[in-house]
Amino acid sequence: MNSSLSLTLDAFYTDTKVTFDSTLKNDQFYLNEQLQDELATQKVSRFLDLVREKAAISTSAIIHSTNHVPTAAGLASSASGLAALAGASSQACDLNLTPTELSRLARRGSGSASRSIFGGFVEWQMGDSDETSYAVPVDDANWDLAMLIVVVNKHEKAVSSRVGMKRTVETSPFYPGWLETTPLDLAEMKQAIQEHDFQKVGEITERNGLKMHGTMLGANPPFSYWESDSIKAMQLVRELRHAGLQCYFTMDAGPNVKVLCKKSELSLVKARFSQLFKEEQLISAGVGPGIRLL
Ligand code: ADP
Ligand code: CO
């Protein structure tokens, strides 16, 4: 429905190993060393079916995946997990896909995963088919940038991204306003990135994020991913800005708050957050690379 932009982070990633094995009757999916139930395995199998079709095989696989990011908590495990699964599964059957082809494939598992094939700032182009809709790198983000992640709640969210987005698109009267203005935000953002204009990047990040959360309040039935600590974290960002520290917040579909700041000021920002949040709730991240074959 709209193009979107992400920043790949080094702190959050997924390691995935896929082994096709003709002695298996069904796919077996282990996430964080736990054998997954039928429903979770089915999601992975459906994705592997796309890969099997491309490779013209019908062999089942054993999948071992470790998320170095909380799963389904609004910290983009679907982006990380499905990008890794696309890379590992296509390699395991020697498809030798280019990064663009990998992005197209990852998108079929999770839209957000199309971007996470690449490092730095990445744009996912809107569209409804592989022909038009895939991600392209925008900037390596190799400048004074960092992110502090405030983990308000690392448990699985009540409304998955997919269910929440569907309901918003179908019922929220605010959604047309989001669609109308987001292309302008994106164009301004790409300009700001090109100019390494931190303040502008931050301002657009914050207002676009809040606008997205606004669309959910207009849905029927309405829902919100915010918790009281999310608001506390957003308020602190505003206070820090008032005190002269340049930082801006954004939130994905979950209660956790991401604070975009300058790498050179990350320790200052973190120190202020330490006064309100526990050490284990604060994760420092830098700009991350794209997908890698181990
Ligand atoms: P998040 O905010 O974590 O991205 P989503 O609702 O978008 O939450 O997606 C969560 C879903 O992504 C999980 O229920 C699972 O289906 C999938 N997922 C997450 N990690 C992995 C992984 N490592 N391998 C395969 N699928 C994964
Ligand atoms: Co997701």
Automatic annotation (TrEMBL):
Residues 1-135 form the Diphosphomevalonate decarboxylase-like N-terminal domain. One of its GO terms (cellular component) is cytosol. Residues 147-281 form the Mvd1 C-terminal domain. It comes from the Bacteria. InterPro entries: GHMP_kinase_C_sf, Mev_decarb, Mev_diP_decarb, MVD-like_N, Mvd1_C, Ribosomal_Su5_D2-typ_SF, Ribsml_uS5_D2-typ_fold_subgr. It holds the Pfam family MDD_C. SUPFAM superfamilies: GHMP Kinase, C-terminal domain, Ribosomal protein S5 domain 2-like. GO terms for biological process: isopentenyl diphosphate biosynthetic process, mevalonate pathway. GO terms for molecular function: ATP binding; diphosphomevalonate decarboxylase activity. PANTHER family: DIPHOSPHOMEVALONATE DECARBOXYLASE (PTHR10977:SF3). This is diphosphomevalonate decarboxylase. It comes from Carnobacterium divergens DSM 20623. The lineage of its organism: Bacteria, Bacillati, Bacillota, Bacilli, Lactobacillales.
